[in-house]
Design goal:
The complex is a heterodimer. Chain A has ten helices and twelve strands. Chain A is an alpha/beta fold. The longest helix of chain A has 16 residues, at 198-213. Chain A is globular and about 50 Å long. Chain B is 81% helix and 0% strand. Chain B is built from twelve helices and no strands. Chain B has helices at residues 3-7, 10-29, 35-73, 76-91, 94-110, 113-116, 121-124, 128-153, 156-164, 169-199, 211-222, 226-253. The chains are: A alpha/beta, B mainly alpha.
Amino acid sequence: MLTSKNNNTINNNEKPALNAIQIRGLHKSYGSIEVLKGIDLNAKKGDIIAIIGGSGSGKSTLLRCINLLETPSAGDVRIGGETIKMKQTSQGPVPADKHQVRRLRASLAMVFQNFNLWQHMSVLENLIAAPTLVHGMPKVAAIDLAKQLLTRVGLSDKQDSYPAFLSGGQQQRVAIARALAVQPDVMLFDEPTSALDPELVGEVLKVIEDLAREGRTMLLVTHEMKFAREVANHVVFLHQGLIEEQGPPEAIFDNPHSERLKQFIRTVQ
Amino acid sequence: MTEATKFWVIHRIVLAAIGISILVCCAIFLRWDWLPDYYSIILKGLWLTLWLLVASVAIGFALALPVGLVQVTGPKPLAVLARGFCNIIRGTPLLLQLWLLYYGLGSLFSTMPEIRGSAMWPYLRQAWPYALLCLTMSFVAYEAEVMRGAFLGVPKGELEAARAFGFSEWQVFRKVWLPRAIQRALPTLGGEVVLQLKATPLVATITVIDVYGAFSKVRQDTFLTYEPLLLLALVYMLFAGLLVLFFRYLENRVPSKQA
């Protein structure tokens, strides 16, 4: 299953200029508070983009606008070259086609800060839910894949455990396996290590690093600067709802231009 | 100590001894010769009580889900309506509702020729449909409140995770929101079903002969007080005990750390 997916990725890479994610003029307001003030961002297939910035800079909101957990107030989001259709209502714009939203969401997978595993399901059930329900995968195949993925994140002995009985690091590794189980085109990581005890951060970062090496497209909101630098091929610094500076990690971390980025890097190091 | 020896600790032995001696005293010193005569009416009453309980809980819970859910999700007019229904039912005594329906609506129906002529009349002239309706409405109102809280209490992140994976809204509800809400509400629901069991004897006031009604008949006929009432208490305790065990079994099916 994993091999066939990799073939797909290679095929897609042959088509030039195909963006996995393309964001144009993205705005997001809550009432009178404008969180995102016009973001343009491209992620080509295989890109690993780290999104950094202070708290309240709009990093998580940006990520959540991509899979429409937040509805953009203005601007375009394109996933795999397909623009999410929006329509205007008296309450502001809403997605026009819920089937399209479901289909595009199914091509993404998100890993949350608080894991958000389904607590009433065992680890294995968490992993097969989306593949069987959304992707129509036969249950036997889904279980097979789930077991492979659990082995990969080092939790093959936990398949029948319930999330409440796992440590934070283990839960997050299950959540990553759950995301991988839908064989996503793009993985979105929303501060995957922020809710973890310091001694558990390493095990989760290691799993993400392995994925990065496979050439998966990933968007990663993170506070782990060292990790961002090692893993990402592109770093985006967000400040007050705008992209203040972006570029390859070396340029961002070693040679920052903007005053705010310099200050940010000083405070986090 | 093994499981078996742990169970037979001294206070349990003493309590069991007291319990058994009370039972023996009751059996020896009280009059039970009426039992064979009323055996069948008691069984019929028992059956009716059980049937009323199961039907009102099953229908009531099924209706409580939308009534509770709509208060969380809207639309607003429906939420207000649901809220109002719950407040009215929960704000008035069940006995009053029962009498209003049976003696009020029931006698009104009998004056209306179009109802008397309808196919429903054979049912509407009996008392049990009114009893069932009342018990069901009461259960809906209380359980809608419980489920409203349970729906609200499911962590939003788990619903977001389901949506982010492309679940349809129905799948989110069916696979995550509802089972999680029921799981959270189960301890409360168990208690509510026991309360519902103990509300059922009220139907005896509108001529439905449930198990309480059957024992009232025994008392009227035999002029005995303690014997039928004690036995009746035992019957309700057994029922309640079985319900508690059943709900405990349900709760333990998904292990949780909070419990």
